# Entry
Amino acid sequence: MLRNRILAVENLFAGYGETEILHDINIEVAGHEIVSIIGPNGAGKSTVMKAILGILNINRGSIFLESKQITGVKPSDVVKLGVGYVPQTDNVFVSLTVQENLEMGAWTLRSGLENKFDEMYTLFPDLSDKRFQAAGQLSGGQRQMVAMAKALMLDAKILLLDEPTAGLSPKFRHEIFSTIQRINESGMPILMVEQNAKQALQISHRGYVLVDGSNRHTGTGIGLSSDPEVARMFLGSRGSV
Amino acid sequence: MWESFGFEFINFYFIPGLVLGCIYALGAIGITLTFGILRFANFSHGEIMMTSSYLTWEFIMIFTSLGILAHPLIGAIPASICAILLALFVDRFFYKPFRNAPTIMIVIASFGMMLIIRSMVQVIWGPNQLTFVKGIAKPNAYIRDLTASFDFMLLIPNKHFSILIGTVLIMLLFNYLLSSTKIGKGMRAVSDNPDLAKVSGIDVENIIKATWIVGGFCAAAAGVFLAMDTQFIESTMGFRMLLPMFAAAILGGIGRPFGAVAGGLIIGLAEELSAYPWFGDGPVISPGYKSGVAFSIMVLMLIIKPSGLFKGKVF
# Structure
């Protein structure tokens, strides 16, 4: 077990209805870490995220947030307990302004909303002049920033990102990855699922490789990206990222 | 010009159209909110309207028996509270159990509620029409004389004046609620993306309760305004309103409250103005076919632009 463990998925078996997708998954995230889950399409990467959030059926296994068991807790409560989650698509309220989006992220916050806004506009300076603009009018990269800021509004203990760079141009992809590093440097542990395996591993402290809903490899970000088998499995076949 | 065209057009077609449009708009708000937030077509919405007009009638009777001469709008206050409680009760016991079931189940449940509520009203108050307000509505003398001195005489009965002012006030309140309060922003967020709302920590059940309160209040207002306008109430009045209200919600774009308001005004005006003698002497469309106008607009909109005028949802 890791020291200073924030999130742990232990021997998890889960899926949609009758179909089991995850078989015996183990994942841990320690404070101040960036951890990536990579793997081919259909490996169950996003399913792990949904299981942590309580969106789908868990057949066996447990999920812990710090020392608290959160297995089977409903999504809105998981969020209140301190798991910030950014879904892959449709992750902002398009008809609400940037600031209203942030406010929705802070639904259960009782006071200090203004301070939180300031904190987010410092962390994401690009959003500062767009605060009264509808989120639907922003570019893909900026929307991703709104989604992340929204998830960070409730003093999250950990941030879960589901393919944060999917569908973005290389320039924006680079920007998102450096934003993720910046959020992490402010003290936020991050667990992300990524298609752009090479770039994700480069900024990650550790990584997990999932194949067919099971753990295949585990290692440091650098270690995994230079592992010949991992490289052959995805990195090489996708070409240079 | 005013004498030949404007006087008749404004007073006998445009103003009644506007009044009817206000009533449709208030009703359509509830329809579009439930559609946006709970994702189903609520057939029982018209019955909440109808019930609140009966309750208003009942409260006026009670006030009168106590020796207080009450205006319908006074009776409407306790009636709208009852209507809101009815809407919350129906949701808790008849719709909530179907929250995660396929949409068609809750639609059918609402159809059932429509029949149940109407029958209950018929059991309590009888199947016949009741007189809501007695007498002929005379135009407001002050407005008539004031406008006559500027050479365009407006004949607005007090009841129409109250309905127009009442609707404007409710709309302002509603606008404030949606744009400036946390619960209102939450309603817009859930309507925008319910899945994201859940994983953002928004308490969706509370939002649903707020939706019934707002929708129930607007339905009560629409019901009372309709009763004030037609001066009688009957158990099928809610059902008759259902088609134009749905047409208004679709025209404005499902899930868009201000679209529903615009849609309601357009449908109301279109129904009244279709009876204006635009060509020749007779009405263009016989007033008997008024509801066909709303239906045609709805069908046309669904064919040409199903997302409505203000980019609503398409299911």
In short: Chain A has two domains: 1-82+157-241, 90-155.
